[in-house]
Each structure stands twice: as C-alpha cells, then as structure tokens.
TrEMBL record:
This is AAA family ATPase. CDD domains: ParAB_family. Residues 6-195 form the CobQ/CobB/MinD/ParA nucleotide binding domain. SUPFAM superfamilies: P-loop containing nucleoside triphosphate hydrolases.
Length: 224
C-alpha cells in the first residue's frame, strides 16, 4: 500500500503522522520505506537521527522532490516494499498532486488549534475529488482519503468545534474520518527529535495507544 500524509497547510502534523505510522507498521512486521517529498527534509532529518542513534528496526528513507521523475521512482520503490509512506510538501504543488495519484490512501491530518487549517483542508479535498474521479474514469486503482483530527484536547471548545467541522467536511466530500484523534502531546515532539516513534519512546501510554489505534484502523481499511 502507498500512503500519503498530506495537507496543504504546514504545521498540522504531516511529518509526525508519516513517521509514527512507518514506525508502527515496521514493528508489526511490514517492510516499510519512507519517502520524503518535502524540500524542508524534515523526515529525512528524522531518519538521519534514527540511524545516528542506532534505533532498530531500521526504516529506509529516500528523498524524492523532482516532480518529473516522482511517479516513476515511487513505483520502483513500491516494488521492493510492502508499504510506502510519503511525507508530502505543505502546498498545492506538482509533487503533492502526483503523490495523490500514486497513493492508495491519503492520511490528512487537520489541527484543531485554530487558524485556517480546516479551510485549507477543504481546498485539498476539492483537488482530491478531481483525482478520485480521474482515476475511476481511467480504470486505475482507487484512492481513499481519511481525515485525522490532530493536536486535539477533549472538552476544549475550540477543539470540539474544529473536530465537528472536520466531520462536516468528510460528509460533504465523501471521505472518511479516523475514529482515533491524536492528542496535543509533548511526547510526539520529543520522540521526533530522537528519531523515534512514540511507541518506542518514553512512558506516554496515551500517545502509544493513539498510534496503535490509528495503525489498526489503517490496516483494516486497507484490507477491507
């Protein structure tokens, strides 16, 4: 399966979701490769730190930022792995569009902390609709999309309102919403700077449960 962690808005947790999914999947025995398609190279830097610290299991990470060769290189890498996890750039760019075409599943993190995050996500979903229809018309493999409520705090009015808007967007654009919501937890940032996923780091049990639940949902969607 090819999974893209994508949103046109930066700072919503794309890289965090990609890294933690890759870690969780590799610990479950899948052969996983990370694709860093973002020029900031945040996931490549995370991968370098993982290698420097000798963290096992190892997760290969390649940087693919040339839109002209992106699709071809993704196909070549996918032939060698069970799962590719693509960390996409935070923009409506040729790379982002090609990643959506290449993917079987889009994981779309949406921050509930305010700002324009939810409305920028609507622009992404409009583009996703075009791609989904084009792939159907061409007889290509279908692509699913699921929104992921991120940086969430229960019983905070702003966060509850944003989560409700995410549900409305999912209904409008006929996409899914993951049942699990990722909390606004320090553990995600601490694990990141160590080259780890939260299931490998520290004692934040709630963060580990969240990522395990997200992975379980993703696998169920992929195999249904």
């Amino acid at each position: 399966m090819i999974i893209s962690s994508i949103n046109y808005k930066g700072g919503v947790g794309k890289s965090t979701a990609a890294q933690n999914l890759a870690v969780s999947l590799v610990h479950q025995g899948y052969k996983v490769c990370l694709v860093d398609a973002d020029n900031t190279k945040a996931t490549s830097s995370w991968s370098d730190k993982r290698d420097e610290n000798g963290i096992e299991p190892s997760i290969p990470c390649i940087s693919l930022v040339n839109p002209k060769s992106f699709a071809k290189q993704v196909r070549a890498q996918y032939a060698q792995y069970d799962v590719l996890v693509i960390d996409c750039p935070p923009a409506l760019s040729p790379i982002a569009v090609k990643a959506m075409y290449a993917s079987h599943m889009l994981v779309i993190p949406v921050s509930t902390t305010g700002g324009s995050d939810v409305w920028v996500t609507e622009q992404l979903l409009e583009k996703f609709q075009e791609i989904r229809e084009a792939k159907e018309d061409a007889g290509d493999d279908p692509v699913q999309a699921h929104l992921l409520v991120n940086m969430y705090r229960r019983n905070v009015t702003l966060h509850e309102l944003a989560a409700g808007i995410v549900e409305q967007l999912a209904q409008t654009y006929e996409v899914g919403v993951f049942d699990v919501r990722l909390g606004n937890r320090v553990a995600y940032g601490e694990a990141n700077v160590s080259g780890m996923g939260v299931i490998e780091y520290g004692s934040d049990r709630k963060a580990k449960v969240e990522i395990n639940r997200l992975t379980k949902e993703l696998i169920k969607l992929a195999t249904s």
